[in-house]
Amino acid sequence: MTPQSKTTSAPLPSMINWDLAAKTAANLTPAGPALKGAEIAAAVDNLRLMAETSVPHVHEISRLEAAKDLHDSQVLVVDRASWAKANTQSFAVMMDPVLRAIAAKQANATQSGASNSNALSATVTGAQLGGVLAFMSSKVLGQYDPFAALAPSSSAAQQASGGRLLLVAPNIITVERELKVDPADFRLWVCLHEQTHRVQFAAAPWLRHHMLSEIEKLGELLVGDSEKFGERLLASAKSLGAKKGTSGSDVQDPSRGGVLDLLQNPEQKAALSHLTAVMSLLEGHANVVMDGVDQRIVPTVRTIRQRFNGRGKDRGVIEKFIRNLIGLDAKMRQYSDGAKFVRDVVAVSGMDGFNNVWTQAENLPTEPEIHNARLWIERMGL
Question: How many CA atoms does the CB half-sphere of 285 hold within 13 Å?
Answer without folding.
Answer: 28
